[in-house]
Design a protein that fits this description.
This protein is an alpha/beta fold. It is 35% helix and 15% strand. Helix 4 links the parallel strand 3 and strand 4.
Amino acid sequence: MKVYNFSAGPSTLPQEVLLEAQKDFVDYQGTGMSVTEMSHRSKAYDAIHLEAIALLKKLMNINDDYDILFVQGGASTQFAAVPLNLLHTKADYMVTGNFAKKAYEEATRFGDINVCGSSEDKNFTYIPEGKAVNIRKDTDYVHITQNNTIFGTRFIDLPDTLAPIVADMSSNILSEVFDVNKYGLIYAGAQKNIAPAGVTIVIVKKDLINSPQAICPTMLMYKTQAKANSLYNTPPCFSIYMAMLVFRWLEKLGGVKEIQKINEYKSKILYDFIDNSDIFQNPVENKFRSIMNVVFRTNNPDLDAKFVKEAAENGIVSIKGHKLVGGMRASIYNAMPVEGVEHLIKFMKKFEMENK
Ligand SMILES: *Cc1c(COP(=O)(O)O)cnc(C)c1O
């Protein structure tokens, strides 16, 4: 049975990319070996590595003031790597969800860290703005989680500050056009919008990485990775290869501008349906609704459980919400086709008819 996978991560990848990887899996382009077997110092791998970097640079319009790094350990390792590289006296964190909180807590191990805004008072259903954000003078950086995967919110405007903005974009990198020049650093685990788990993308302004803390492990030093073009040690070659294929797919589709239109359309039809439904609701303040993770629920946890079960029987899988929120969550990343969202809405309609 064909299924639509609404998992929050690892998540669905473009079918064409999977087929292409399958075709080349055993014998990559006549090399007689798989990408999973080849030396990371080989000519064939080097071409993959360089193309992946070049394509990301083009897709996100990244200029030469920034380094693009491919590292390991997931976004969670960046929760430590960021302060270890960028924190000199103090830094401020926006706590807008579970991952944001984890990033904040990890950073407190390394210096003077302050929460400059939080939406915990309303179970993370909005993004604090204006007077609700108090950034300290001379802070080294301001950390935000641009898209809150579990709670289904996203930043629309960046915090008002002259300090470098560090953004966790694990669940929305390449989903809409971002002006990279407004950020000091962007990081993202690959397994939501880019590739299988393994590689973590770091895009960092070159002038921020020259004075890591003395205790920063070599492997976490951005300047070490930058100098070695992310080949200081063995990189996650296969994940980077898959990222390259996904970047090619996105480029062919018309780039980020085009996928943004598709993502806006997918999320709009789903939110419109929820807003007009008699049994489903979404708790997020409209303006801050994520276009990647759409959370919804009925007013009855038993009915939610029934929905999740029957959805699976109808080819809609991994739609259960995170335990912190309950209900359902449809993660509709770049690779989720419009038909997948339409199929979900059709099923929701039918479920509503049968259960209201
Ligand atoms: C999934 C996710 C993480 C955790 O990523 P790992 O790669 O598993 O460490 C962190 N931040 C955000 C916003 C996420 O969506």
